[in-house]
Inverse folding.
């Protein structure tokens, strides 16, 4: 993708020239008052983004309720597109001329209101009916029209400035891509002075739609086809916890010369030393870690043993995979998955045979559950305390 973008940018110069696609008169950089207004414009664009997304999928749901075969839906959508184009031809096509006129501030008044309403309805019905259609240019037109309408009540700047800021915010909110919207607008106009205003408005619109809608207009379409789409905004608990924070400080251990039958009896009697975990660490006479035996190993040993002298070291595993106290929990869990095991002895890096803890799947799940609870449970605010 990066190579393709670079090649396209290089070829564009000899084919179309080096200037912006939509050249505009450079605007002066906005001060604090202008940035506050840009924030409000972004909030309005965010609300409009949510409304447009709901409108598209509202029409899609409406078409599914029609008592006719789905192959007729695009024809019905095309009929409404034709009616919209008859009433206002500017709602048809990609609308580059319309976008440029909005950026130059040439479309104002009731003409812009009609353009916004007409384009929104035609676009939503067209996509809802299942016809092939784009998203980018229509969002720029609708966002620009919204900004031109708002410019009537904004005391600073001109209609072209607020059309530019609003169309970027509309794209950022609807597509959930604020950085893309900012860079895209700057590339279209080369008006670098508006970058702070674009930053404020695009982030405001994006933040609002994240709170309003579970998915963007693009990922909603994929989700409706049965594919799970997620955009993670929380930190994986496994990536921020260390093994020492969740490990069992009192690991189950047993001497290497203990018979398997004796360990089985201890488990059957619910001995607190070995019965609380699926695995038991094996140590020698000097308390050095030499192996691990699981309950599965015990069962297999009792089934296959020909005498009662089989020791836990002989029945268990001596090829150990270990974790370290300062290791990130995610890395330790990765070791479990790759080696198809459910528990790890925890040892010091400088003393690989000195057991300091035990990490099992139960501890991992407990750590994740604790982090989830911490994220969702909030302390009562002072206003709640007064209630």
């Amino acid at each position: 993708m990066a190579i393709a973008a670079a090649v396209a940018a290089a070829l564009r110069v000899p084919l179309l020239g080096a200037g912006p696609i939509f050249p505009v008169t450079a605007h002066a950089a906005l001060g604090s008052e202008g940035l506050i207004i840009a924030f409000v414009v972004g909030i309005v664009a965010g609300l409009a983004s949510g409304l447009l997304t709901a409108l598209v999928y509202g029409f899609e749901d409406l078409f599914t309720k029609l008592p006719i075969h789905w192959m007729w839906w695009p024809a019905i959508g095309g009929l409404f597109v034709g009616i919209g184009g008859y009433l206002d031809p500017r709602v048809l096509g990609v609308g580059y001329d319309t976008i440029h006129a909005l950026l130059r501030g040439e479309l104002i008044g009731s003409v812009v209101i009609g353009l916004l309403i007409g384009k929104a309805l035609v676009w939503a019905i067209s996509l809802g009916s299942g016809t092939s259609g784009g998203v980018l240019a229509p969002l720029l037109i609708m966002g620009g029209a919204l900004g031109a309408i708002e410019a009537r009540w904004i005391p600073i700047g001109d209609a072209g400035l607020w059309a530019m800021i609003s169309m970027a915010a509309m794209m950022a909110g609807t597509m959930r891509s604020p950085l893309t919207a900012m860079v895209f607008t700057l590339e279209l106009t080369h008006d670098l002075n508006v970058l702070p205003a674009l930053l404020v408005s695009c982030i405001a619109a994006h933040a609002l739609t994240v709170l309003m809608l579970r998915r963007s207009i693009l990922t909603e379409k994929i989700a409706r086809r049965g594919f799970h789409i997620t955009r993670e905004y929380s930190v994986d608990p496994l990536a921020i916890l260390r093994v020492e924070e969740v490990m069992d400080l009192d690991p189950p251990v047993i001497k290497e010369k203990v018979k398997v039958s004796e360990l089985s009896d201890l488990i059957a009697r619910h001995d607190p030393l070995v019965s609380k975990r699926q695995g038991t660490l094996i140590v020698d006479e000097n308390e050095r870690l030499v192996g691990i035996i699981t309950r599965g190993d015990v069962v297999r040993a009792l089934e296959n043993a020909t005498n009662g002298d089989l020791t836990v070291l002989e029945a268990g595993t001596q090829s150990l995979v270990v974790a370290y106290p300062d290791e990130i929990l995610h890395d330790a869990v990765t070791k479990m998955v790759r080696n198809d095991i459910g528990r790890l002895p925890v040892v010091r890096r400088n003393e690989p045979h000195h057991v300091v803890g035990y990490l099992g799947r139960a501890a991992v799940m407990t750590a994740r559950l604790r982090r989830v609870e911490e994220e969702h449970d909030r302390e009562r605010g002072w206003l709640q305390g007064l209630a």
Remarks:
- The mean pLDDT is 85.
- The first strand starts at residue 253 and ends at 255.
